C-alpha cells in the first residue's frame, strides 16, 4: 500500500500543524523557490540576537526575584543605603550635576536692563522648556489621532521546527519538518464614530498646552521683573546704609570730641557708639538681602547665582504714571485675554469631545482587512514503518491571500457605555467649575493689584515728602548740635529718622514697580514679554 505524504494548503491550519495527506503534485522548481531549512538557519540566530539585545545580562538577580525585600529599607527608622551590588544602578547625582545652559548666554561685560533679563530668562529657564515640550507632546497626540484615518500595515515573520506522529488506520508514521510563514497585513478602519471626537479632543489639548505655555512665559517674565526690582532696591538700600554708617560715624566722632572738652558725657558717647554699631549691622543685613535677591533672580533666569551680572540701577527706571483705565475695564480685559482662562476653555472643549467619544461606543465599527504572504513547508518521513519507507522529502511553498470586511457592534457591556458617558459628563462639569473659580480668582487678582498700584502711587508722594523733611531735620540738628542747641539723643533720633526715610523712599519706588508688574500680569497682557517691560506697557495703555 502506498501512502501520499504531500500536503494540501488549508487556510485554517496553524503554524505547527502537520500538513494533511494529499495526492502528490509536481513540485515548483522555479528560481525563486525558498528553502525553509536555510531560512530557519538564518531566522533562529537572528531572533536570538534580537532577544539578547532586548535585555541586559548583568542586571538579573535571582535573589531579587526570590526575596525582593532584600533591596528595600530594613525598617522605617533607619537610613537606607544601597547594597554593594546595587551601586552601579543607583542614581549618581554628580553625573547629573551640569552647569546650566543659561550660563553660556550671559555676557559679563554687558549692563543688563529689564528687557535683557526677560529675554535671557525665557531662553534658559527650564520651566519654559518644560511647557514647550508639553505642547509638542500634545501636538504629537493630535498627529496620532489624525492617523486613525490611515491604514495600518504590519509585517509578520514566523517559523519553527516540528516533529509529529501521524496515526492512520492499520499503521502509523511520523513526520518532521520546518515551516516559515511570512505575511503582510493591512487593516483599515472604514467607520468609527469616535474618530472625529478623538481628533477634536487632541486638538483642544494642544490648544490648552499652547496657552499654558503662553501663561508660563508671562509668569517667568513676571517673576524675573519682581526679582529684578527687588535686587535693584536691595542694592539701593546698601548705598543708603553706607550713608547712614558715615553719618553715625561722624556723630560718634563729634560727640567724642565734645566729650574731650567736657561738653558731652560718657553715656551720650556710648549711645552714639551704639547707634554706629546698629548702622553697621543694618549695612550687613542689606548686603545679605542683595545676595538673597541675586539667588532668586538667578533661579528665574536659569543661571547659577555666582555670576556677577551688571545691571542698571533703580534710579535708571522710570516710574509709571497713574492709570486712566478703571478696575472694571481691566477686569474685562483680563477675562478676555488671560492665557490660563483660554487654556481652561480648551480643556472644557476637550471634555466635551470626551463625551462624544463615549457616546460613539453605541455605534458599530467597520474595518477592512487584507493579508498576503507565503507559507513554506519542508518535511520528511522519520518513521520506521516499512509501509512508508521510501517516501520522498517534500518542499512546498504556497502563496496566501485574504480580504475581509468586519463590522463590530457592542450590544451589551454591562452598562459600561452608560457609565462612561456619565463619567465624561461629570469630569466636564468639574472642568467648568474650575473655569468659573478661575474667573473669580482673576477678578480678585486684578482688583487687588489695581488697588495696590493706586495706593503705591499715593504712598510714594508721602515717602518723598518724609525723605525731604528728614534730610532738613538732620541738617538742622547737625548744625544745632555743633552749637550746643540740641542734645545727643535728638541728633541720633534725627539720623535714625533719615535712615528710615531713605529705606521708605526706596521701598516706595519698588512697590510701584512691583504693583505695576503684578497688575499687568494679572490682566494677562498679550504684549511681547521679551521686549516690553511692565512699566512701559502701563504707560502705553494711557496713549490715545
Question: What do these coordinates show?
Answer:
The chain has 544 residues and is an alpha+beta fold. It has twelve helices and six strands. It has helices spanning 36-53, 62-66, 93-96, 114-124, 126-146, 195-260, 266-301, 327-337, 339-359, 416-482, 488-523, 534-541; strands at 111-112, 152-168, 171-191, 310-311, 365-381, 394-408. Helix 6 runs antiparallel to helix 7 (266-301), helix 6 (195-260) packs antiparallel against helix 9 (339-359) and helix 11 packs across helix 12 (534-541). The longest helix is centred in the C-terminal third of the chain and has 67 residues, at 416-482. It is elongated. It starts with 35 loop residues before the first helix and ends with a helix.
Structure described in brief:
Helices cover 56% and strands 14% of the residues. It is an alpha+beta fold and 544 residues long.
- The pLDDT mean sits at 84
Under CATH, the homologous superfamily of the domain at 197-351 and 418-535 reads Outer membrane efflux proteins (OEP)
Number of E-state strands: 6
Low-confidence stretches: 1-36, 528-544
Shape descriptor reads elongated
CATH architecture of the domain at 197-351 and 418-535: Up-down Bundle
CATH topology of the domain at 197-351 and 418-535: Outer membrane efflux proteins (OEP)
* Structural classification: alpha+beta
CATH class of the domain at 197-351 and 418-535: Mainly Alpha
Radius of gyration: 41 Å
Q: Largest sheet, if any?
A: 4 strands, antiparallel
Number of helical stretches of at least 4 residues:
12
Widest sheet: strand order?
A: 2-3-5-6
